Amino acid sequence: MRCPRDFGMLPILLLLIVVAACAPGKGFAPDVPRQSYIDANLHFTVSYPESWGTSLSPAGVAPYPAHSVVWDIPPSGPRKGLSVIVVSLPRHDIVPRTAPLETLRDIYPNLTLVGRTDETLPAGDAERLDGFTPHDTVRAWSVAGEASSYLLVFTASPEDFSALAERFREIAESFAILE
User: Fold this and answer.
1) What pLDDT sits at residue 120?
2) Which of 13, 70, 103, 105 qualifies as a cystine partner to 57, CB 3.0-4.6 A?
């Protein structure tokens, strides 16, 4: 008995395997230039896309807490503006579990919280907070260090948020505590 062999599909299958193996993994896409920000006073570093043309906003100016760094990224093309905020919450003895949420509500008084999830980032165990305001979708991660806890806050318009969610995660994963 003869076994028919059809090798016509084999080149296509091999091509699909090669393409899948070469697809970019987690982290910043290699073709996206990025820059790093290091804050020796607040003891952290973070990387973000260079093309965002960020401008640091003054900390301690309402509604931002004094121990924070704020990037306001202006609109670009069809994308509306977005913001990235890193807040350092000094740990005197203990930071209550509610402190990150209270800080988030100080920044966004109209925040409606829709989800809390425990996750692990390279910087350590984190709690992800998801919510929205009348104008923005908000995602934040709270990460505890030895001397401080940190709140990483990302906001964008509801129309832009889903397209930026993975980029926000990449930035959160680049966050490192310098202790």
Assistant:
1) 94
2) 70
Size of the chain in residues: 179
- The CB-side HSE value for 162 (13 A sphere, CA atoms) comes to 2
d(CA 35, CA 11): 41
Return the amino acid letter for 102. E
DSSP conformation class of 100: H
Beta bridge partners of 148: 90
Q: Are 138 and 91 in contact (CB under 8 A)?
A: no
Tell me the range of 48-52, 99-103, 137-141, 145-149 where mean pLDDT is highest: 137-141
Smallest CA-to-CA distance from 152 within 89, 60, 109 is with 89
pTM: 0.75
CB atoms within 10 A of CB 50: 12
